[in-house]
């Protein structure tokens, strides 16, 4: 089965769909968001993804009054969440920039009002963050849009994944294997979950959302059949913010996308044949011909 997001078909032997996650790495700055969009476009990504919250709903009560040191001074966690959220005009500005650069764009809504907000902006898909996989009202709101859904499966049991898919259905679903550690160590990658999810949910495209340092694990995910790859991006991993350290800088993203396309070419079709490049060595080295 394939899933179409915007102009791209995911699965069915197509090239992997490459998502550059900006998330909150724009730190509430539209110009920084545009720079990150340019980084994604220049590297050859297919889409950029943001995060959309209604802070008064999505911020856990236990966290709201926690003080946090920020570039704008000490503020409560709730005030920080308000500070980094884009409003409608800002989203229109960054989405227009993404479209002008030839990228699809969408976001992870963290609450039902955010789903409605994103729908007014005509997003091509919705992404369910791993943290939201058990939020049934949110899953129902996303399902009811009729848009394609990308579901990350980090910090979740198989039973929880089953329950989420029971709500979402499989017709327009892309599953993303993920481990929600920031940054993730190799021993927690568990990449064999990619074929395991593919076996458990036949016909559902399965990709990989990574939070590791470096490129190797994402490349291995493609070799194991991941049909989509999502990685956080930043201008500088030392920037302030919770996701920057687990993100790829511009050169890293360029190298990742270049190397994914090389891996895809190298995978071939699994049919054994003698390639043209082998004929000269065969004539020179093979003594017994049949």
Which features does this protein show?
alpha/beta, 8-stranded parallel sheet, 11 helices, single chain, 290 residues, two-stranded antiparallel ribbon, PseI/NeuA/B-like_N, 19% strand, globular
Task: Write a structural description.
There is one protein chain. With 290 residues, the chain is an alpha/beta fold. The chain is built from eleven helices and twelve strands. The protein has an eight-stranded parallel beta sheet. A two-stranded antiparallel ribbon has the order 1-2. Helix 1 packs parallel to helix 4, helix 1 runs parallel beside helix 10 (250-267) and helix 9 packs parallel to helix 10 (250-267). The protein is globular. It starts with a strand and ends in a 5-residue tail after the last helix. It comes from Microbacterium pumilum. This is N-acetylneuraminate synthase family protein. Residues 36-272 form the PseI/NeuA/B-like domain. It holds the Pfam family NeuB. InterPro entries: Aldolase_TIM (IPR013785), PseI-like (IPR051690), PseI/NeuA/B-like_N (IPR013132).
Strand and helix map with partners:
Blueprint: E1 3-5, E2 8-10, E3 17-23, H1 30-43, E4 47-52, H2 55-58, E5 67-70, E6 73-76, H3 77-84, H4 88-100, E7 104-109, H5 112-120, E8 126-128, H6 136-143, E9 149-152, H7 158-168, E10 173-178, H8 193-200, E11 206-210, H9 216-223, E12 228-232, H10 250-267, H11 276-285
Parallel strand pairs: 3-4, 3-12, 4-7, 8-9, 9-10, 10-11, 11-12
Antiparallel strand pairs: 1-2, 5-6
């Amino acid at each position: 089965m394939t899933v179409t997001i915007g102009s791209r078909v995911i699965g069915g032997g197509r090239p992997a769909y490459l998502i550059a996650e900006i998330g909150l790495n724009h730190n509430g700055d539209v110009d920084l968001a545009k720079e990150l969009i340019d980084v994604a476009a220049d590297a050859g990504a297919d889409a950029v993804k943001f995060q959309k919250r209604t802070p008064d709903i999505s911020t856990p009560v236990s966290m709201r009054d926690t003080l946090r040191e920020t570039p704008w001074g000490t503020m409560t966690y709730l005030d920080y969440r308000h500070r980094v959220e884009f409003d409608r005009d800002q989203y229109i500005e960054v989405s227009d920039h993404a479209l002008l650069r030839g990228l699809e764009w969408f976001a992870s809504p963290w609450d039902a009002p955010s789903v409605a907000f994103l729908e007014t902006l005509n997003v091509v898909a919705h992404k369910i963050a791993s943290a939201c996989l058990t939020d049934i009202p949110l899953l129902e709101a996303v399902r009811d849009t009729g848009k394609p859904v990308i579901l990350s499966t980090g910090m979740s049991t198989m039973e929880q994944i089953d329950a989420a898919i029971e709500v979402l259905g499989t017709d327009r679903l892309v599953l993303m294997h993920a481990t929600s550690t920031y940054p993730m160590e190799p021993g927690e990658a568990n990449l064999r979950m990619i074929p395991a999810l593919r076996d458990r949910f036949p016909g559902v495209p399965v990709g990989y959302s990574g939070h590791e340092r470096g490129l190797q694990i994402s490349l291995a995910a493609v070799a194991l059949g991941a049909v989509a790859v999502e990685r956080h991006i930043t201008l500088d991993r030392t920037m302030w913010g919770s996701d920057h350290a687990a993100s790829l800088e511009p050169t890293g993203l360029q190298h990742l996308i270049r190397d994914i396309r090389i891996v895809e070419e190298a995978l071939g079709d699994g049919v054994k044949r003698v390639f043209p490049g082998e004929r000269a060595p065969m004539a020179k080295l093979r003594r017994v011909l049949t």
